[in-house]
Amino acid sequence: MKRLATVALTALAPVSWGTTYAVATELLPPDRPLFTGVMRALPAGLLLTALSRTLPTGKWWWKSAVLGTLNIGAFFPLLFLSAYRLPGGVAAVLGSAGPLFVVGLAALLLGERAQLRTVLASVTAAFGVSMVVLTAQARLDAVGIAAGLVSSASMAAGTVMTKRWGRPEGVGPLAVTGWQLTAGGLVIIPVAALVEGAPPALDGDALLGYGYMMLINTGIAYWLWFRGIGKLSATSVTLLGPLSPLTAAVIGWAALGQDLTPVQLLGMATAFGATVTGQLFAAKAAAAAEPAGPEPAAPGVADRRTVQLS
């Protein structure tokens, strides 16, 4: 039950990210994705760091910069570039390839060995997402595809390295999340200034939208995500990623008046079923890898026992 609660709380992060499109299109200034990235990450990072009352020390200054760049600073701009160069459906499918990147990187860096059924669950979830979001008019663009794949790989690498490095002794996930969001936001600022110029004027709707993005969509969501990485395997966490495009599709239907075809409904069921199945495989693997007795861990170092993922 404790693991189930952790999975459920971690799943709230991609569910929250699935609301981004609706909030952006209904409330935020158009054509300012990088400014939106800064507004999502930097204020949330500063707020969480202030609430934790903890700053990085020693090597955690550069580790936070690396993790913040992978998870936020590189991920956001590349994701937005992909979204601009490709139809949203194609970009979403490229994003759903994240679990496959994590499977490979986790095997390489964490010793988490994934069996065939884990890979099949990831592929099935991506296929289900493609049924939901792809259309016959989808066009392909080499730059957009490259940006989408690299953004997915960047987030995957950030997830795996967050798991590998863990947290400093005595420091909770709130502080580490704040450090990463702050670093990531600072990385985006010069890119946003160069590409988009001066910040736009903000009306009441924009302030409401950015407030939601900062507090719920980023601050709380990333805290839940990094908290989950600390308690679950990297593969288990990233297999929750397809919940984001599925949430976006549901919101589009319920709130924006978008239709859902039978094929899309089948795709939603396929992707959700693969996500649940992947979590069941991960739960069995975690139970099989559980040591018979307590095992001491080195202070400030993530648990790097070899986990047999299935």
SSE topology:
Layout lengths: L1 H16 L2 H8 L5 H20 L7 H14 L1 H11 L2 H8 L2 H12 L3 E2 L1 H18 L8 H24 L7 H24 L7 H28 L2 H5 L4 H12 L7 H28 L18 E2 L1
Parallel strand pairs: 1-2
Helix pairs in contact: 1-11, 1-13, 2-11, 3-10, 3-11, 4-9, 4-10, 5-6, 5-9, 6-8, 6-9, 7-9, 8-14, 10-11
List keywords for this structure.
2 strands; 14 helices; single chain; 310 residues; disordered C terminus; globular; mainly alpha; 1% strand
Query: Main beta sheet, described?
Result: 2 strands, parallel
Percentage beta strand: under 5%
Spatial arrangement of strands, main beta sheet: 1-2
Q: What is the count of helical runs?
A: 14
- Strand segment count: 2
SSE series: HHHHHHHEHHHHHHHE
Could you estimate the helical fraction of the residues in percent? over 70%
Q: Which regions have little confidence, pLDDT < 50, spanning 5+ residues?
A: 292-310
Class from secondary-structure proportions: mainly alpha
Mean pLDDT: 85
**How much is the radius of gyration in Å?**
19 Å
Distance between the termini: 20 Å
Q: Globular, elongated, flat, extended or rod-shaped: what is the shape?
A: globular
Write up what this structure looks like:
The protein is mainly α. The chain has helices at residues 2-17, 20-27, 33-52, 60-73, 75-85, 88-95, 98-109, 116-133, 142-165, 173-196, 204-231, 234-238, 243-254, 262-289, and strands at residues 113-114, 308-309. The chain has a two-stranded parallel sheet with strand order 1-2. The protein starts with a helix and ends with a strand. Mean pLDDT is 85; it is low at 292-310.
